[in-house]
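Rotation project, supervised by the postdoc (A.L.). Task for the rotation student: set up a whole-complex structure prediction and record inputs and outputs verbatim in this book. Inputs entered:
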Amino acid sequence: MDTTREIIILDFETTGLQPGSDRTIEVAATLLVDRRPVETFSQLMHPGRPLPGFITALTGITDHMLRGKPRPEQVMHELRRFMGARPIVAHNASFDRRFLLAELARAGLVADNEFLCTMRLARRLLPGLPSYRLSALVQSLDLQLPGASHFHRAVADVNHTVALWLRLHEAIEQHTGLTSPSVKVLTRLMRTSVGQTARYLATLALAS
DNA sequence: TGCCAGGCCCTCTTTAGGGCCTT
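Outputs recorded:
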């Protein structure tokens, strides 16, 4: 699927950093059609163990909030249907990709969706910023959203990632004239070294 | 028992090391 006309913006909250031993506790996924949010899937999940104190402090999610919630492997079936084969966008996408594949595998599912990373794209399209963590980008690019100020909750982080995704499209259009870059172009851009980005964007501008 | 990721990115680099980013 080489078009970004329909795309999924994804974010997981988890019990830690290791997909092999940690579990997902919250997911949010927003379907964008022609860059407009159409539908959001979100769900808290019970990881089957008490939350580390650090995670409760980071996310605000408590054991009490997860009581009675479905296990991740139950939620993955619904998430898989919601995402379909659409490309997936996430901030530091390798993290969410590894957790998605691990939880899908526990549910007996697989996925081969393309992944696009707003952090890697931002480093190339918006160079010179002091930090590329999501909260810092939201602040430095003035992307704050009403009612979505709590970072490290899945829906809020997805909403901020949507805003960043749209801002990155503005930058691509400014540099190249492309209004709807393909997955292939965005993947190539992500894999271009930071130092070679200007050259690649110039190539795209000439071709468009 | 003790320890615990993975991958990108920069630079005082490439026979490497450390910081960043995700939770």
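Student's summary: Chain A has one domain: 6-207.
Supervisor addendum: The two ends of chain A are 21 Å apart (CA to CA).
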